[in-house]
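Student: Please help interpret what follows.
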Amino acid sequence: MIDTPLGYLLSIASIAALFGILERYKKTKKLFSYLPAVVLIYMSSMLFAQAGLWEKNEMLGGAYSTAKDNLLPAMLFLMLLQVDLRQFARLGKTLLIAYTTAVISIGLSFLLIFWLFSLNADEAGLFAALAGSWMGGTANMLAVGAALEVKETMMGYALVTDAVDYTFWVVLLLALVRAAPRFNRWTKAVQSSSVFNELGCACTIGPKRYWLLLAVSLFIALVAQIIALQLGGLSTTTWMVMLATFAGLIGAYSPLGKVNGSTEIASTMLLLLVALIGSRADFSGFDDVPLYLFAGLLILLIHGAVMVLAAKLFRLDLFSIGIASLANIGGVASAPILAAAYDKALIGVAVLMAIMGYLIGTFGGLLVGYSLRWIAA
């Protein structure tokens, strides 16, 4: 049994590193296409916790809180260095309408299903975190979960629901690609002409500056925590998340936004955070998983119906609504795959939309979360 902070953090890092490395191997890629690394890391960490690998003492609890409170704002800051609102505005009317409709329909679908299922306050946190993921990505899920103080077990349910329902949605959208000509004739749409071959993203330009980015991100985390402690109205973690988000958005317009390597560091921090959360989870059973999977599936179907209605109303093409949907639900990992199925020249559009989720996902998830808690009250 591990009972020291150093041993605890080293074991957490080892779990994250193991699956992070395996995900890159060709022989294991098929497995990770069905079970993302974040899910496998969480489940492994949770199982080790249930097996008693880590002693539940005050020192390990302090190590968990310190690591989580520093990694979360640092990760958000680094991810948002890629966001450039000027490029997003250049997407054009058709894609902007599709993206806005996707975000709003996802949020409203969560509120409707939560109300219909009469879920409780704890489950409000689960669905708020899931909303953060489906408006942005896993990083936003963790940010919303931390800000709303969602229990680690509920975060586990959110991760499982995200992985399973998201896979269904990806397969469905890819299967519909061949129906694009017929769909576009039905909506009387003009094929989207917005094409971005080069985004000028910091993740592909120049030498990587890991130490610089790591130092600045941890400094931002420290400053965000200090300022958050002085503010009231919202929880300290909520303020910390929001401050780190704004710092990242500002940093994107500074010379730091052009420094290469932020994506890799942020992704590593994400895996570490997932392993940390899993180490504190306590599953007494999986009885509620089918309910959450079904609820998540209904949310996606309602969102999809609204997107089709918007396509007919605004004469949107299938690519526009499909990529806007998957840029939210799947993020940077899957949106380019769908774009490539239409035309490889459109991959840049998918990446740009997905990157915007890093900004919108946190605030959208928090808005959904507070609304769900009001419904549950």
